[in-house]
Structure formats: structure tokens, C-alpha cells
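Q: Please design a sequence for this.
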């Protein structure tokens, strides 16, 4: 009896894990590639550069940064929604300045892959991405 309860619990846990894995596997993904992290002449500040690749339909979490961001769209079309502003769609070759601490979301609104080069001037030693509720 005890063995069958353990087996049932194990199967339920495994099944739940597979269901969660399948659900997350179905979400369009975002891949971040760190390119550069370097101290600046200003004490306590650093430059960080990241390539962010969005699969079709991928949406970032709502987040902010502990410093300014300059986003340059390398390919595709990305819609940016900054707190308190109307959404803006950028295409390859266009840029956007995102001030420190401003909550925002980025979404691939094109039919193919979209990529951005994100350059941050941030406080050294703080998390680069700060989730916002």
C-alpha cells in the first residue's frame, strides 16, 4: 500500500514536471548573449553590451534597468512599451533610448526573428534586469 502511494506521488510529480516543461517549451523564447562588460571612468559605473534575440511572438517580462539603455534593432521589428508612453515599433537600423528605472516591455511583432543590441550604462554590481510587477 505504501509503495503504491509513493509510486503514484512520483508519477504525479513527473507528469506535472513534463506538463510544465511542455508549456514553457511552447512559449517563444528570448536569448541573451553577453558581449561586453567594462568599467567606466565614472566611479561605480560600467558599460554592458548584450545581444538579445527574440523568436517570433516573443515578449520580454516587464522590467527596468539600474541605468540608461540604448536599444539598436539589428533585424526584424520590435515593439517597445515604456511606462507612461505610447508603444513604439522599431525596425532594423532604428534606436531607442530608455532612461534608468523606466519599466518597459519588448515584443517581436514581425513574422521572423528579431534582434537588438542593448547597451547599458549602469551602476556596477547591481542586477542588470529588475523585474517589475
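A: Design:
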Amino acid at each position: 500500500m505504501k509503495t503504491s502511494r509513493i509510486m503514484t506521488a512520483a508519477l504525479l510529480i513527473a507528469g506535472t514536471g513534463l506538463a510544465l516543461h511542455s508549456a514553457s517549451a511552447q512559449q517563444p523564447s528570448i536569448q541573451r548573449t553577453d558581449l561586453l562588460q567594462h568599467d567606466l571612468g565614472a566611479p561605480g559605473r560600467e558599460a554592458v553590451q548584450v545581444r538579445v534575440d527574440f523568436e517570433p511572438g516573443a515578449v520580454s517580462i516587464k522590467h527596468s534597468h539600474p541605468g540608461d539603455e540604448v536599444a539598436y534593432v539589428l533585424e526584424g521589428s520590435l515593439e517597445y512599451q515604456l511606462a507612461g508612453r505610447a508603444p513604439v515599433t522599431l525596425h532594423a537600423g532604428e534606436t531607442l533610448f530608455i532612461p534608468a528605472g523606466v519599466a518597459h516591455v519588448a515584443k517581436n511583432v514581425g513574422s521572423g526573428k528579431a534582434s537588438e543590441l542593448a547597451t547599458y550604462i549602469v551602476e556596477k554590481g547591481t542586477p542588470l534586469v529588475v523585474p517589475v510587477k
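Q: Thanks. Anything notable?
A: The chain has one helix and ten strands. The two ends are 45 Å apart (CA to CA).
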